[in-house]
Specification:
Helix content is about 30%, strand content about 5%. The protein is mainly alpha-helical and about 200 residues long. The chain has one domain (about 30-190).
């Protein structure tokens, strides 16, 4: 009788484990693309920026790793160089998907000068605000995954150089998915960069 009770107890534990939700089942491990090439640029003579500004901006954008998030495929280790800095179809969760199956997700936007899907119709000052104080051009939401507090320490010359470089890029038409608020279901994939402290 004891053996039967023990067997039934073990079966109950196994079946409970089989039906309980493991949040890690929704994810797979990936390797980031942490070395990104920069595009060779051919600045238009119509741009009001000097070649030195554009070269400095190219250096800074590479140094700050902007392409690691803003290039399609880079967040999952397969960067599409035809969409260099043209935004990501893979988003970044900014709330914890291990606590909430539907976290908030930001899809890094298109930084090329495409007028419809990129920065083509965004004023320089609005781009500077995005970089330095995390305000998006649509009306004031702080950008939750962009490390703008660190970028806020850049000099005005460096910020202007970044804008000059972004303006010099070839325009790439690429609309990224809309950002998702916590609790909404994402219709496009995303990654999560969690920061956890050990219990020791």
């Amino acid at each position: 009788m004891k053996n039967i009770v023990l067997i039934l107890f073990c079966v109950g534990i196994v079946s409970a484990c089989a039906t309980s939700y493991n949040p890690l089942d929704d994810y797979r491990e990936i390797k980031l693309a942490n070395v990104m090439e920069t595009l060779e640029i051919y600045p238009s003579e119509d741009l009001p920026y000097s070649p030195e500004q554009i070269t400095r901006g190219e250096y800074l954008v590479a140094l700050l790793g902007c392409a690691s998030c803003h290039t399609d495929g880079a967040l999952v280790g397969t960067p599409n160089h035809q969409r260099h800095l043209a935004g990501s179809s893979t988003g970044i969760a900014y709330s914890n998907p291990l606590n909430n199956r539907n976290p908030g997700v930001v899809y890094p936007p298109n930084l090329t000068p495409d007028p419809d899907t990129g920065l083509g119709n965004v004023q320089d000052q609005a781009i500077i605000q995005q970089i330095t104080i995390g305000i998006n051009p649509q009306g004031g939401h702080t950008l939750p995954v962009m490390p703008w507090p660190a970028y806020s320490k850049l000099s005005s010359n460096d910020i202007n150089a970044i804008v000059a470089y972004l303006r010099s890029l070839p325009a790439v038409s690429h609309k990224v998915p809309d950002n998702i608020s916590p609790g909404q279901e994402a219709i496009a994939p995303f990654v999560h960069f969690g920061v956890y402290q050990s219990r020791q």
